[in-house]
Amino acid sequence: xxxxxxxxxxxxxxxxxxxxxxxxxxxxxxxxxxxxxxxxxxxxxxxxxxxxxxxxxxxxxxxxxxxxxxxxxxxxxxxxxxxxxxxxxxxxxxxxxxxxxxxxxxxxxxxxxxxxxxxxxxxxxxxxxxxxxxxxxxxxxxxxxxxxxxxxxxxxxxxxxxxxxxxxxxxxxxxxxxxxxxxxxxxxxxxxxxxxxxxxxxxxxxxxxxxxxxxxxxxxxxxxxxxxxxxxxxxxxxxxxxxxxxxxxxxxxxxxxxxxxxxxxxxxxxxxxxxxxxxxxxxxxxxxxxxxxxxxxxxxxxxxxxxxxxxxxxxxxxxxxxxxxxxxxxxxxxxxxxxxxxxxxxxxxxxxxxxxxxxxxxxxxxxxxxxxxxxxxxxxxxxxxxxxxxxxxxxxxxxxxxxxxxxxxxxxxxxxxxxxxxxxxxxxxxx
Length: 431
What we know:
Layout: E1 6-11, H1 15-26, E2 32-37, H2 40-49, E3 54-58, H3 66-75, E4 84-88, H4 94-102, E5 107-110, H5 115-153, H6 157-186, H7 188-191, H8 193-232, H9 237-277, E6 281-284, H10 285-295, H11 297-302, E7 305-309, E8 316-319, H12 321-339, E9 345-354, E10 357-364, H13 374-377, H14 394-405, E11 409-414, E12 420-427
Parallel strand pairs: 1-2, 1-3, 3-4, 4-5, 7-9
Antiparallel strand pairs: 6-8, 9-10, 10-12, 11-12
């Protein structure tokens, strides 16, 4: 195995299926090492040789099927942590899906597989693997530092006390860093949404950047013609005025396009920095929600979703804007994926402040949620899009962020055909 590559195990008894999976993953930007196994037994042997980032496991195999293989992997301490995604063309009934999750699977993909969905899920687990390897690397370095410091402490009683205190401080600091890194791994599902935001912003930037390139080229040609006319002595007063007017118009378009691109980049920078740094700061609620709407502009337009932002200006919060942006991103994408049909729909976001508390109301006019399903909405891995790209973690993350990070509460009010209303109540200053 190449230590610099991310290992992925593909298990299928049919060689053509393994070839197809390898082809789908071969053009990813990640540096993957794809390992193939044609049976459950071979998969068990390979998993003992290498700590894989992900196992893509076929369910229907002779001798030992995928469910049995997953069960054995989970019972072995050396392989119990390996994430498994089942891939199958059959056995997609509900009881089979539940059996798969009971066997330890993190997801279930039904053939034919959507390439974008497969690559997205593989990317998430490969990034988790890279983070875990970084943690292990830091752990090894930390242990080396501890051994080096311990040797120095033996020199004298005074140095022993001083270095011991220093060592305890360093160990505590490193332990906290490791805990934070582990928390980031648990919450990495949140960061997967940034990939969609990046694609949306890139799409949005195409228009202003294209205008800039086109106008800059036209401006260069006009100035070249003007220079040639001046050099040849054929430059007239009317030609000069016409050329100047065209250059001024091009300049206006260049400035306007540059400003539009700058606004998009600024909105994306704010959202990306907030979501990746988890920094706490004072911010205006309307501006922050506006930034996330800018970055999700492409997704909203493709879904024909209309957003009415009614949050009044001047509502300030001292909290974690990245987590608040993640809540709105998940709510909006949940409306697009589960609430709206082909004709799109409307979203209204409002807020009010009273006695140190801020009440944020998110509403859509989509399909709604049956009352008997309300208690399941915030449960992990509950989704109506099982096997179709839905992870079932979006609303679970919203609930955890609202209660755990922002120290607030979120309530759902909905009925079939009447849209949904989420009421998020949080303190203006997070404790």
